[in-house]
From TrEMBL:
<dbReference type="InterPro" id="IPR014314">
    <property type="entry name" value="Succ_DH_cytb556"/>
</dbReference>
<feature type="transmembrane region" description="Helical">
    <location>
        <begin position="107"/>
        <end position="130"/>
    </location>
</feature>
<feature type="transmembrane region" description="Helical">
    <location>
        <begin position="29"/>
        <end position="50"/>
    </location>
</feature>
<keyword id="KW-0479">Metal-binding</keyword>
<keyword id="KW-0812">Transmembrane</keyword>
<keyword id="KW-0472">Membrane</keyword>
<keyword id="KW-0408">Iron</keyword>
<dbReference type="Pfam" id="PF01127">
    <property type="entry name" value="Sdh_cyt"/>
</dbReference>
<dbReference type="InterPro" id="IPR034804">
    <property type="entry name" value="SQR/QFR_C/D"/>
</dbReference>
<comment type="function">
    <text>Membrane-anchoring subunit of succinate dehydrogenase (SDH).</text>
</comment>
<dbReference type="InterPro" id="IPR000701">
    <property type="entry name" value="SuccDH_FuR_B_TM-su"/>
</dbReference>
<protein>
    <recommendedName>
        <fullName>Succinate dehydrogenase cytochrome b556 subunit</fullName>
    </recommendedName>
</protein>
<feature type="transmembrane region" description="Helical">
    <location>
        <begin position="62"/>
        <end position="87"/>
    </location>
</feature>
<comment type="subunit">
    <text>Part of an enzyme complex containing four subunits: a flavoprotein, an iron-sulfur protein, plus two membrane-anchoring proteins, SdhC and SdhD. The complex can form homotrimers.</text>
</comment>
<keyword id="KW-0349">Heme</keyword>
<comment type="similarity">
    <text>Belongs to the cytochrome b560 family.</text>
</comment>
<keyword id="KW-1133">Transmembrane helix</keyword>
């Protein structure tokens, strides 16, 4: 034991309270949250498909729930989560080719957020215009 080297005092890992939340860190967390939201949101898609395949009354029930103000809000959130997660996946795909790790990483994160909001609004405008 006397021949063993002295223990080196290494710095401790910083705790979450020490980290300053960065935009890219928040976008990573939102990407994970949208993934979970999409997992549970697939129940809406399954309900829609089952209602369409079952009977007109089952589809009317789905349409009534989905057309309510709360249903529209949930569908709007689901649309945003889908588009945000897809754009985040494209950002990760760019990273797979070892691009976008420099100063442009914040720009890519901001583009993901802005793009998801703009695309969601565009999709809903087109959808509501086609609905009549």
């Amino acid at each position: 034991m006397a021949d063993s080297p002295q223990r080196i005092d290494r710095p401790l890992s910083p705790h979450l309270q020490i980290y300053r939340p960065l935009f890219t860190m928040m976008m990573s967390i939102v990407h994970r949250i949208t993934g979970v939201g999409l997992y549970f949101g697939m129940a809406i898609l399954v309900w829609w498909l089952l209602a369409a395949a079952t009977s007109p009354s089952a589809y009317a029930t789905f349409a009534a729930v989905a057309g309510s103000p709360i249903g529209l809000l949930v569908l709007f959130g689901f649309t945003w989560a889908l588009l945000h997660h897809a754009l985040g996946g494209i950002r990760h795909f760019i990273w797979d080719f070892i691009h976008g790790f420099g100063p442009e990483r914040v720009l890519l994160a901001k583009a993901t957020l802005a793009g998801s909001v703009v695309l969601t609004v565009v999709v809903w405008i087109i959808g509501l215009a086609l609905k009549g």
